[in-house]
């Protein structure tokens, strides 16, 4: 029993090394994309965002959005779902846990 | 590798604002639920005590009844003899 535990403990540094070599390139690609795609909006972009929302609203009112193809509508629906899910990620961060409230 | 896409400002602001609103909401809800959970725990403990007392009494009564039944049986047999 003690020998098995010793062997396991001796293996831990190699396991950590293997995990590091596996994850480093993947983290690098993630960072490569996140630096451009996931950054928060710069102060110059926030008014553009409001203009964009206004464009969407005028598009709805004029009926232009009724002309979107099913493919585009599906794609836009997926993007909207992803944006809404960030709310739940924020909620998990705020409540300090993933499942349920630890009261 | 595919070059990273330039995300529209609408989506960027929407994502980050939802993230911040979600964090705020989570913290608020947690602060709202925590004292209520404490109160409910106290109430639950008090009720549990009462329930256990009642169970003890019921158990004692049941044992007393069982004892009476067995002692009656014995007497009956001796009388028949």
From TrEMBL, chain A:
Pfam families (UniProt xref): ATP-synt_G (PF04718)
GO CC annotations, alphabetized: mitochondrial membrane; proton-transporting ATP synthase complex
Principal location listed in the UniProt entry: mitochondrion
Transmembrane segments: none
Domain of life: Eukaryota
Keywords noted in UniProt: ATP synthesis, CF(0), Hydrogen ion transport, Ion transport, Membrane, Mitochondrion, Transport
Compartments where found: Mitochondrion membrane
Family to which the UniProt record says this protein belongs: Belongs to the ATPase g subunit family.
Protein name: ATP synthase subunit g
Native organism taxonomy: Eukaryota, Metazoa, Chordata, Craniata, Vertebrata
Automatic annotation (TrEMBL), chain B:
Highest rank taxon of the organism: Eukaryota
TM annotation in the entry: none
Entry GO terms, CC: mitochondrial inner membrane; proton-transporting ATP synthase complex
InterPro entries: ATP_synth_F0_esu_mt
Gene Ontology terms describing biological process: proton motive force-driven ATP synthesis
Keyword annotations: Acetylation, ATP synthesis, CF(0), Coiled coil, Hydrogen ion transport, Ion transport, Membrane, Mitochondrion, Mitochondrion inner membrane, Transport
Primary residence: mitochondrion
The keyword tRNA processing appears for this protein: no
Coiled coil: 36-63
Subcellular localization: Mitochondrion inner membrane
One MF term in the entry's GO annotations: proton transmembrane transporter activity
Keyword Mitochondrion among record annotations: yes
Similarity comment text for this entry: Belongs to the ATPase e subunit family.
Protein purpose: Subunit e, of the mitochondrial membrane ATP synthase complex (F(1)F(0) ATP synthase or Complex V) that produces ATP from ADP in the presence of a proton gradient across the membrane which is generated by electron transport complexes of the respiratory chain. ATP synthase complex consist of a soluble F(1) head domain - the catalytic core - and a membrane F(1) domain - the membrane proton channel. These two domains are linked by a central stalk rotating inside the F(1) region and a stationary peripheral stalk.
PANTHER family membership: ATP SYNTHASE E CHAIN, MITOCHONDRIAL (PTHR12427), ATP SYNTHASE SUBUNIT E, MITOCHONDRIAL (PTHR12427:SF1)
Assembly, per entry: Component of the ATP synthase complex composed at least of ATP5F1A/subunit alpha, ATP5F1B/subunit beta, ATP5MC1/subunit c (homooctomer), MT-ATP6/subunit a, MT-ATP8/subunit 8, ATP5ME/subunit e, ATP5MF/subunit f, ATP5MG/subunit g, ATP5MK/subunit k, ATP5MJ/subunit j, ATP5F1C/subunit gamma, ATP5F1D/subunit delta, ATP5F1E/subunit epsilon, ATP5PF/subunit F6, ATP5PB/subunit b, ATP5PD/subunit d, ATP5PO/subunit OSCP.
Entry protein name: ATP synthase F(0) complex subunit e, mitochondrial
């Amino acid at each position: 029993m003690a020998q098995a535990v010793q062997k396991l403990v001796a293996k831990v540094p190699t396991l950590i090394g293997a995990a590091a070599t596996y994850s480093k390139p993947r983290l690098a690609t993630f960072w490569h994309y996140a630096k451009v795609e996931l950054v928060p909006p710069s102060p110059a972009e926030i008014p553009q965002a409001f203009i964009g929302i206004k464009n969407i609203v005028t598009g709805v009112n004029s009926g232009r959005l009724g002309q979107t193809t099913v493919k585009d509508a599906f794609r836009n629906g997926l993007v909207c779902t992803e944006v809404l899910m960030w709310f739940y990620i924020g909620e998990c961060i705020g409540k300090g846990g993933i499942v349920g409230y630890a009261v | 590798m595919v070059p990273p896409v330039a995300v529209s400002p609408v989506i960027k602001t929407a994502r980050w604002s939802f993230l911040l609103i979600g964090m705020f909401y989570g913290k608020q809800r947690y602060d709202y639920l925590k004292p209520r959970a404490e109160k409910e725990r106290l109430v639950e403990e008090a009720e549990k005590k009462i329930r256990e007392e009642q169970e003890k009494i019921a158990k004692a009564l049941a044992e007393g009844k069982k004892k009476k039944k067995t002692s009656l049986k014995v007497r009956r047999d001796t009388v028949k003899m």
